[in-house]
Amino acid sequence: MSLLVVGLSHRSAPVSVLERAALTTDAQVKLVQDTVAAEPAGEAAVLATCNRIELYADVDKFHAGVAELSTLLAQHSGVGLDELTPHLYVHYEDRAVHHLFSVACGLDSMVVGEGQILGQLKDSLALAQDLHSAGRLMNDLFQQGLRVGKRAHSETGIDRAGQSLVTFGLAQLAAGTDVDTWAKGRKALVIGAGSMSSLAAATLARAGVAEIVVANRTYDRAARLAQILNESDDTDVVARAVPMDSVPVELTRADIAVSCTGATGLVLTADAIAAAVEGRTGAPVAEISDDRPAHGTPKPAAGVVGNDENCPLDLTAEQSGFSVMGEAAVAGMGAAELEQHAAWVDNGTVDIREAGRRTPEADAELIDALAATAARVGRIPELRRPEPVAGLVRPAPELFLLDLAMPRDIDAAAHRLAGVRLVDIESLAEASADAPMAADVDQVRRIVADEVTAFGAAQRAAHITPTVVALRTMAADVMAGEIARLDGRLPDLDERQRGEIRQAVHRVVDKLLHAPTVRVKQLAAEPGGAGYADALRTLFDLDPETVASVSRAVDSTDKKDRPE
């Protein structure tokens, strides 16, 4: 059997795919169960976080294993295999071990060096153990991964290379201002009471917010988190719990809102956020577009001439550099709206200047492609933060939103609301891509490489141990048989003489077996050493079934009596 991992993460897939592929706890359980029930896999574990979904398995066939694991991921994630496949990565044997150890050290995290992944690895192993899908390989792999991650954090400064997702997200909200200075005295709303939400609440409390309101679908959990915050000796924050239906009211009072729930739909819609800001300011909330000049008067989309009557698009929200038939125009539209817009384009009610512009034919083809996508996935993903335009003036934020959920809790359309600053998983991924790497990362990489080598050697050595034990068991059986035969042929020997003979035979056999068994363990621990166990079994004609069942300590002294 061999280790195989098939997965997708923020490095291989866009957030729009990751959030649709996100697995609930029940889906994780079913995925693991179905994996071990599949023919190619003997053990399995799933690692599902806000920015990765990985399925680990001990398989007997590589190609069959890849096909089976990919199919299972598609089935349980709800994303079609054809759409999912381009975003999947596959690691096998030592590369799979290297990948997990890198993940455990935070090298593969969205924010390099974050330590939350260790808790997630621990949870993954616990789930596999509860489901009895973790055998020797999965237990050894994940337990060693946890040790490697802890070693990286204790022996290096990898913690300085990055922060937790919560801390990094708050830093992005503060936009260059010291987080403690930015947060001091503000009121915060935390939606959710899980591990990430609890971390967010604790981080906000340490940053100096004056009040934290915790909302959760299970009120008791919210109350427990609020109690922990109030009883903390490290902060002076005042915390209280509210039911989920109080969120709209609390949002009008909050300066900062952090959401991380397991909801499959939106927790905060753009309309709810706009209503909250309006409740704070007393004025309607406008939408901000990068195509809007500084004085706030909408300008027409570049290159658009003529009548825009009956166009199903909001032309005032157009982005610079796109025609009204282009991708920016249709982002976020549903299939029916796209079909309506395509019909409007076909009617020729808009003209396009040719110089430096897309042609209507090309835009019409794009519309068709986007309509097909919308029909398949429900709607075109919302275009996120557009490129900044010189002279754009955006009002100072009234409400700061941090969305740490996958799939998202907060409507991406909130990016366009005046008085709102939204940071979510996608914008965090963009920001962290340019984050400087600390010199300690190289040291962690060396630790990972050394640990992978050591793990491989240990696994290969462990692989040959049953064969060595079976060889010594066979030798003991042969000795016992020969001594019994000698007892029958020399009945006049006294007990002292018999003891001397037994010791002499044992010493001879031990000396003959010592060097080859020690050496074969050394050779088996080296790369490419897996074949030594087979060679040992062949040279000594060891029964494969005896090797497999040696742990049951078979007492038979006659090889012919051993199970076939």
Account of the protein in words:
- There is one protein chain.
- With 564 residues, the chain is of the alpha/beta class.
- Helix content is 51%, strand content 11%.
- It has 22 helices and twelve strands.
- It has helices spanning 15-21, 25-37, 62-77, 81-84, 94-104, 116-130, 136-155, 158-161, 165-174, 179-183, 195-207, 219-231, 247-253, 270-281, 327-330, 335-346, 360-377, 425-433, 440-489, 495-524, 531-539, 544-548, and strands spanning 2-9, 41-49, 52-59, 89-92, 187-191, 211-216, 238-243, 256-259, 304-305, 351-352, 399-403, 420-423.
- The strands form three sheets. A six-stranded parallel β-sheet has the order 7-6-5-8-11-12, sandwiched between helices. It has a four-stranded antiparallel β-sheet with strand order 2-3-1-4. A two-stranded antiparallel ribbon has the order 9-10.
- Strand 6 (211-216), helix 12 and strand 7 (238-243) form a beta-alpha-beta unit.
- The chain is elongated and about 110 Å long.
- The chain starts with a strand and ends in a 16-residue tail after the last helix.
- Residues 290-332, 348-358, 379-392 and 550-564 have low confidence and may be disordered.
